[in-house]
Amino acid sequence: MYRHPAGLRGFLTAIALLGGALVSSFLLGAAAFVALERVAVAVGRSGGLPGWWILITTTLFLLPLLFFLARTFPFLSDWYYLLPAIVFLLVFTVYPIILTVYLAFTDYSGARNGLPDRATETAVTAISGRRITLAADPRQSLGCNKTCLGEKVELVADGKRARFTVTAQQGRTLELDRAPGFEPRYAYRVNVFHYIGLRNFAYIFKNAARALWPVFVWNVVFASFTVAATALLGLFLGVLLNNKDLKLRNLYRTLLIISWALPGVITIQMWVALLNKQFGAINRLLGLLGVYPIPWLLDPLWAKVSVLLVNLWLGFPYMMTATLGALSTIPDELYEAAKVDGATSLDAFQFITLPLLRAAFVPILLASFAFNFNNFNVIYLLTGGGPATEGRLSTAQATDILISWAYKTAFRAEGQSAYGLGAAISLVIFVLTVGISLVNFRVSGALREEGRR
Amino acid sequence: MKKFWVTAVAALLGMAFAAGQITIWTHFGGPELEFLKSQAQRYEKATGVGVQVVEVPFNDIKQKFILGAPQGEAADLVVTVPHDWLGEMAAAGVLEPVGKYATKDYLSGLMPVAVSAFSYGGKLFGLPMNAESVALIYNKDLVKTPPATWDEFLALAKKYTTGDTFGFLYDLGNPYFNYGWFKAYGAYVFGKNPDGSLNPADLGLGGEPGYKAGQFIKDLRYKYKLIPEGVDYGVADGAFKDGVLAMILNGPWALGDYKKAGLNFGIAPLPAPPGGGAWGPFVGVQGVVVNAYSKNKIAAVNFAKILVNPANQVAFNKAGGRIPVSLGALEQLKADPVVKGFSTTIAMGDPMPNIPAMGKVWGPWGNALSLITQKPDSDVKKIIDDMVAEIAGAIKGK
Amino acid sequence: MSRRAWGAAFGLLLAYLAAQWVFFAARGLRPGSFLVFGLERGDWGLVLGFLLSAGLLGVLLRGRLDGTDAWRLVFWTAAVLEMGAYTWGLGAELAGRVEPRPAFGAVFVPGGWRYVLAGYAAAVLALFVYSWAVIKVGNRLSGRRRPVGPLFGQALTHLFLWTLVVLVYYPVLQVVSASFDPRNNLFSFRRVHSAWLLVRAKVLPSFANVSWDNYAKLVNGVVIYPWQWALLALALALLLAALGLAAAARRRGGEALGVWRGRALFGFAAALFVLVVFLGPAQFTGIGTESKFLLWVRNTLLVSGSSGLLAIALTATAGYAFARFDFPGRYPTLLTFIFVQMFPGFLALVAIYYLLSWLDLLNTFTGLLLAYSGGIISFGSWVYKGYVESLGRSLEEAAYIDGATRWQAFTRIVLPLSAPMFVFIFLLQFVGTYSEFIMANLVLTGVDKWTVGLGLYSFTTGQFSTKWGLFAAASVLGSLPILLIFYGFQQYFVSGYTAGALKE
Fold first, then answer.
1. Structure ipTM
2. Burial classification of residue B53, based on how many CB atoms lie within 10 Å of its CB (0-12 exposed, 13-18 middle, 19 or more buried)
3. CATH fold group of domain C284-503
4. Do A15 and C186 touch (CB under 8 A)?
5. Could you say which of A82, A283, A363 has the minimum Cβ distance to residue C103?
């Protein structure tokens, strides 16, 4: 067979070769795509080619290239097994992440999206070379801040549009950086977005007491309590249902799985109705028990309790199933041997079941923690982050976790489509998640691989 | 035969290329959607322009349009957009100013409030189609004549607030429904510049008027004990539909369901609250807007004009019961009690601000209202002050 | 453990608690308010104080005491007391926020919990009497001496489990009953007349006026061609045949039955596939948005199904390479896979939107499918890697001796053995994307393109109208496929989650 170049050098060689192949075939593919598009337009397809053709042309170049590379560098073929996954990760995960990270350092938002502001429409009355004359005073009609110098404007004629920078202004006449080359009818000022460095992060940390800290603390409490509660109940039920003498145990298992099987969009919204203070079924039931109506979703503290309870309801079947799966891998001989040695069933549980369960459970608990840490659906659908709490940003209320805070900032009315700020928050979430996971992995050794160097 | 095919293909191609196709996004449903589709078909037959109607949920339209229009992924027309989105959408560059397509005659045939609502930065950004506001809707089986004064109102509401029936309910935490009280106590959202445009630096929700309105809203729950916790829009609406609620604050969109439930209802303005001036709701105007990036603007605008002509506004009212903004259409519908009731409240109200700064108001305002009504000992002054501070900070840009 | 150590530990504990009490009392706070929730008040000093005093305790004890017993004792006592105090304080705080006023229109029974408790006590007693009698009679008849305990324990377990089942199913019952209520509102305000207290209190739904209106609206105007009916019948027949064969195989065993069962299942899947692909928007002629419901189900099956297949295709080779190969950079790449996935993916929505827009894949199922694909790769590869490692290398090594290449060893030996894991990965992706609505909402526009999650979400987030009845009916119908899958493939879920984690 073949040998890899050793160590870091081998890694870097492989990455360089693969990267080179990907980049060069993408460039070739893009060139081919442009050429094909020209042809398509010439033949009469007015819209040109759909953009995904570039994926096809790239693949057409990539495959032979990979084939020849594997001939020259046989060790590279190991990497080919990873290539589909890597390419998909690069295109549909890494690339969006890079764009998001870039946005985090800008003030990009719904109203600052690099597009012309239509409210600044001003008719162009005359044009000569680089100079255009407008129908009204550009400082007002274009809404420039004091002077229009340096502003970007978009000029539009029938079917044509182009952007220019204003280099000088004199009364109603603007001088542009270059000649338009067509007869523009209207001018608009462009709402540019800027690179603003760390200002988004400065905002997050300046308002940390009103959003980041309380949200983060609640997020950790939410995730860890959910994991602990679901694991305890799941473990208990799993051990109970693992008893081979229990009748109907498969029926119970099948019945109890329901809250996991049903889509959250349905069940969580149902809980909203059930937990209404005056009219919800839960409080009516409690009323029969002589309990006064509980403000489940109206009081900030109770809302947290509700979120945890609903999440327990949603999450325990998964833990129960996982426990049963783990228990089924423990051979019966172990218990029989213990019985022969005179151990009670409690002993067997303590010294056989628990230690073996632990090994299987640690990764499950970690995965569950990671999932719940960003469990957007249950928060967003149950409370929408509310109820309102004094002294908080309107995007970060009593039960908001980091991800719902970021989502509301970037995509909901409360946050004003502040994509830049939302991206910055998601970067903070990323750093926190990675940090917590590193600690988790280190403590639990979940990523350690036995039997490998 | 061959010749026939050649001509047929040529004709088809000609239609596809010359007349083109426009896409419409709409949030209409039921009979209103039917109305729109039939208009689209008629237009298609008359002009040869294909019209495709796509249903998009109301709450998604703004974001999808802002994201999609520059990419060529949005509709040519949106039927309809509420006017309070205009500022944001215009600033994002996706709305075509339509003033150049509108004639003086057309504009003078509309309610003035509709025109001003659809003007932003001195430009018309859409063709207004219907107006709406909230009003007191009362169940005539329980309330014979609508109360004219606060005392009458309170007595009536208290009479029906038993364990099983309710006197007066509405979505207490929603600023849109509560603006009327703020206005009654002299509060406003944005002040006006000398030229009549809104000034985002002049916030009028705070101060003494704001405290009074906040206190009154809190009193509705804790002093007058009319609106218990847990009442949201769905609860109030459901109670009215079930016939156990005497009076609700709601808008024309709900009437279809009330008719279906067989209710006998009337429409009236709310009385002035104690110590306040006249109540006056937010007025929302909905209209048709044109995509600035549309490849087929002329066809789109022409269809929009047909949709909003007075005859069609009347037809649209018959379909869904919305209140037209064309004076001619209003004149024809004079006899309709619903149109009459809501025209009264629309005349009493203010149009919702349409500048982008309004987007920074809703969130903190809603939060403040939920905080005020969350517990009996909430500190109204502090909450209102915090709200004003947050809004002002957000408008100034952090 | 010496008496002195006990004393020191106890004294320190008291001092610690006293210090805490003084600290908090001085700030005028109730005990409950200094829990994490207290952070809302901005009291960061409290946390600091807690950490400081805990650290101080540790330092002090380290010098005075030896023996891990003392350590443990102090730690656990402190922990239990602290937790107890917190829980008590929290409970007091929560109770303080409940207004002592019965809910509107509710039936309020003061002290009603006593009846329930008494009921349970009676049930327990009855169960005990029953088990006692059964065992005694059995012992008398068989002459053996079995204790009463185990049977009574089982009876109690059943009681507990049935209580749990009732609690777990309560929301489901509400959804189902709401779907039969034509009035489209969730809270009924009309008085209910019934002999049953639970129905009168509106705790249990009254099925007095059941109506199929909501369901009728969901299928209103749907045109299904005869060949589709035929195909549907064929698919159902094949499914029944597969189930029957499975039952027969369980009873009698036999290889041939298993093969036929596989063929029947495959035929069922193929028929379903054809049905899903060829069901088109043109067949939905109803007026309302909700009449497109079956189309949404079809769209979802299409998207989630292909997404699951794509997930298998992408993760199989990667997981295999991670498990078996040993090239430089394997482990760093694995770590990169895992950590890249920790970026909150759906916040990159805007970026994904632009990406799909450049590829002209917006508003297409392909676009949505590709957008979903990124999410499963890391976890899928990780789980599959664990599975391959658990398979053992001996079969492959034998194949290598016979002259097989790596690719052949993978495709001929490992792939056929991986079927359960592939089913698991498929299900994971299928279930995960089935009711997703945020990404779908971004990519898809127009009701003809919607998925089930999007449709369900839209019923409850209309501008002013919440269509609860329709929502409930659609929920019942929309969760059927996913329930069938869950119950049909239960064992794969059970084994899948552990197979990836357990190495041996």
1. 0.85
2. buried
3. MetI-like fold (1.10.3720)
4. no
5. A283
